[in-house]
Amino acid sequence: MASPSIPTDGETSPAERVSTKVDGVNVLGAISPSRAGDFIACPLLYRFRAIDRLPEPPSSDAVRGTVVHKVLEDLFDLPATERTVERARDMLLPAWQALLELEPRVAELFVDDEARLDPWLTSCRRVLDRYFTLEDPTRLEPAEREVYVEALLESKLLLRGFIDRLDVSPDGLVRVVDYKTGRSPDPAFEAKALFQMKFYALVIWRTRGVVPAMLQLIYLGNAELVRYIPEEADLLATERKVVAVWEAIKRAEEAGDWRPNPGRICDWCSHQALCPAFGGTPPPLPEPTRSPVDPSGEVDTDEGIAALG
Fold this sequence. Notes:
The chain is α/β, with parallel strands linked by helices. It has seven helices and eight strands, in the order E-E-E-H-H-H-H-H-E-E-E-H-E-E-H. It has helices at about 35-40, 45-50, 60-75, 85-100, 115-135, 190-210, 230-255; strands at about 20, 25, 30, 145-150, 155-170, 175-180, 215-220, 225-230. The strands form two sheets. Strands 3, 4, 5, 6, 7 and 8 form a six-stranded mixed β-sheet that branches. Strands 1-2 form a two-stranded antiparallel sheet. Helix 6 (about 190-210) packs across helix 7 (about 230-255). The longest helix is centred in the last third of the chain and has 24 residues, at about 230-255. The two termini are about 15 Å apart.
């Protein structure tokens, strides 16, 4: 999760077969796990976010994720002995103020009812407190935090995204860590989160030649760890899936067919008024000017901004 903007703008631009270059190679396009997940869940949602780039109002959950991510990122800038729950709580309000300066529109969340701000900040503190029940940051020295990664596949599709944390052991074992400020999903809905982690693992494997030893999701909404040990076969299957998703995106683009896929995701969608499944009409497609790549990098629609400084 990480990005320099709130996850309301989408990540990609309208379609054209003109590609960018990476190390002198013309790429077909680029995709992040969030945008791939959007298309898998609902092609029309992908269109609204990646092509139309429709604005979405900030949500209290997403902004909570942004602020908590920032505190957890900065926590590891402190000496190990100072990484305490009390210090993390002290860092919360400055992180919130920094976010307001960077993205003033998040203040809209509380403009009609400022009395809700204190309970919301309290909920952020509870989330931070749960982190310390799952890990002891005084015993951790992450190799990288909020790291941008990308890999160009043989198909000339560029995979890209931001990883919350990479831990590397003295013997070179890599652990990919992602913070989620919501609750862990039911097992039936766990595949989406694991797809994101396998996507990151695939990029690490393709760029560093090492299959991560562990993928770890830290759910701070209910203090649960989800761990997965990937194998090469997993990552090859993930690569095939990502390429298949991209090919499906290209077919939808060529046909102009971005059909909705009604389901549970609709409960959180900001675009129901424009969705045919709810009696709406999508806006005309923008004029094609660029390929449907992912120019701004990974925008985690679950977590929001992490890069505030």
